[in-house]
Amino acid sequence: MEINDSILNEFITDLKNAIKSKDKEYIINILSEDILVSHGGNGGIEEFKTHWDWSSDDSTFWLTMDKLLRLGAGKYQNDGFYLIPYIFSNWPEDEKYSVFEHMVITGTNVNVRINPDLKTSEVIGQFSYDIVKVDYKKSIRFFDEPIWYYVESLDGKLKGFVFHDYIWSPIDYRASFEFINNKWKLAILVAGD
After folding, report:
1. Strand, coil or helix: what is 33?
2. 89-112 burial string, b = 16+ CB within 10 Å, else e?
3. Which residues, 6+ apart, have CB-to-CB distance to 58 below 8 Å?
């Protein structure tokens, strides 16, 4: 989605560069004072640092924000708020798309496989930016390997495994930026409901 605010465009470009270089000082400076990082917490920069294991060089913050930015824009209505990813902000309000039972495919021609294996499993179909139903009981996690989601098309005709890099939940991590005191700030970075 094209953003119609040059200040926001510049901010997002700077944020992407900071994520790429793991610029901790930049990130701390763009946090709102009461940033929310969990639904049960009180918020704040110290809570952010604890939640994201900020003293570690391996903080998952970098991968999470990179993924959110790559997934793309959500809503921007020139009202001082900007939400990412589009999956959260544009999720259908129809009850048939439960956020607990459905996810969205995040690419074009994403392979659906009969078994959870990139190298040897037969491709039985493809999805492109579709909402799919997820069967968490049939989904697979290997000890140290990423998860495979067992999914089916909304019409039930295509069922199989999709690699985790190509699927996202509307209640997975999402971020909200607010224009505060003439600066864009990261105000919310949460997952869950």
Report:
1. strand
2. bebeeeeeeeeeebbbbbeeebbb
3. none
Q: Span 108-128, mean pLDDT?
A: 96
pLDDT tens digits, 2-48:
556 788 889 999 999 999 999 999 999 999 999 999 988 889 999 99
Listed residue (172, 146, 149) closest to 159, CA to CA: 149
Distance CA(91)–CA(174), nearest Å, equals 12
What letter represents residue 171's amino acid? I
Domain ranges of the chain: 6-86+171-190, 102-168
Which CA distances in Å does 94 have to 90, 99, 133?
Answer: 12, 10, 14
Helix 6-21 vs helix 61-71: crossing angle, to nearest 10? 140
Q: How many CB atoms lie within 10 A of CB 11?
A: 20
- Spelled out in words, what is the top-level CATH class assigned to the domain 6-86+171-190? alpha beta
* Bridge partners, residue 178, by sequence: 81, 185
| Whole-number Å distance between alpha carbons of 84 and 1 | 11
* 82's tokens: 């900007």
- The Cα 77–Cα 97 span in angstroms is 25
